[in-house]
Amino acid sequence: MSEIIQRNKKGFWYANVWHEGMRLRDCLFTDDRKEAQKRLADLYVAVERGEYLQSKETFEDRANKYDPVSLKGIYKGQPSKEKKRTLEYHLLPRFKDKTVIQVEEELEAWVEEISKACPDSTCKKLFQVMTELGFEFTKVEDLEGKSFDRDQILTEEDVLRVIQDHVMPHYRTLCLVASYSGLRLKNVAELRKKDVNLRSEWLKVNQSKTGKVVEVPITETLRTVFSRIPSPLRPDDLFFPNVNTKAIATQVTRAFNRAGITWASFHHFRHFIACHLLDHGHSVEEIRDFLGHKLIETTLIYARVKRENLKKLGESLDTSWALTAIRKIDAL
């Protein structure tokens, strides 16, 4: 039996041999017999080095073996839907039909590309999944991707305008609860009658992301919002039954876009309340407890001070003592 055979309209040579228990039937992509023999010899070397199967493995092969699990929060050790979505919606479309070797050749350029195009949080998710898939690469430090600009602060007027003018009517009450409680979308969607005690004026929630229990004071505004929900409800009844959180998130993002606030999403209702509380004199530590963050560094990402307040902060340094000090310095 010949080690190579010639077939197809282009006359390409194909491997047609067993080598060290491995069946080789690869296209050699040449119609020149001597060149085909050289390429077959390269395949023999790849088999002997244990590199042949790796060269045949595709990104999809590796993805099919991937069994992602959560590493933190109350879902630690459980299957991770978020990682699965990251793989399906971001990575598979990008590396479809590529071998693992081809992916590795493109990896550094891809890392640089997404580091410039995506927020830090998205980059971290993509990097984590790629690492768990077995790819090694140099992670970019000080990512240049999208970040929160100092001007990206929602005012109360912005929030109410978007909800009133651009959010679908059946989602408005849910959005208002999120805006004035600081709760995540999933937690608002899963609120039950027993979680909200209007008498004690406290709302108690076991956060879906961190597992941390937070207590939110029920303000007069929140009380008014809850009064809009049809009653009576039994203790285990949901305030917002049969809602699709993905559909709500998409609709709210579109609502912000229609309002001309192209950088905002549902999660920015949470940012709004952090900024609002900070601008009204509350400490970062208080805001951390209110939002249920484990780390104060997370709160610092959310809480941004308005420029006019920063200006007032600077003006407060112009005390009579400071002006006297300046005169003394000038006299030197």
> How many structural units, i.e. domains?
3
Task: Tell me the helix content.
Answer: 40-55%
Question: Count of helical segments?
Answer: 16
Number of strands: 7
**SSE pattern, N- to C-terminal:** EEEEHHHHHHHHHEEEHHHHHHH
The low-pLDDT segments are none
Major sheet characteristics: 3 strands, antiparallel
CATH architecture term of the largest domain: Orthogonal Bundle
**Which percent range describes the beta-strand content?**
5-15%
CATH topology of the largest domain: hpI Integrase, Chain A
Task: Walk across the major sheet and give the strand order.
Answer: 5-6-7
- Name the CATH homologous superfamily of the largest domain: Intergrase catalytic core
Structural class: mainly alpha
Instruction: Kindly report the average pLDDT value.
Output: 82
**CATH top level class name of the largest domain:** Mainly Alpha
Distance between the termini: 99 Å
The Cα radius of gyration reads: 29 Å
Structural summary, described in words:
This protein has 332 residues and is mainly alpha-helical. The protein has helices at residues 33-48, 52-56, 59-65, 81-95, 100-117, 120-132, 156-166, 169-181, 185-189, 220-227, 245-258, 268-279, 284-291, 296-302, 307-315, 320-331, and strands at residues 4-7, 12-15, 17-19, 22-24, 196-197, 202-206, 213-217. It has 16 helices and seven strands. It has a three-stranded antiparallel beta sheet with strand order 5-6-7. It has a two-stranded antiparallel sheet with strand order 1-2. A hairpin with a 2-residue loop joins β3 and β4 (22-24). α7 (156-166) crosses α11. The termini are far apart. The model has no long low-confidence stretch (mean pLDDT 82).
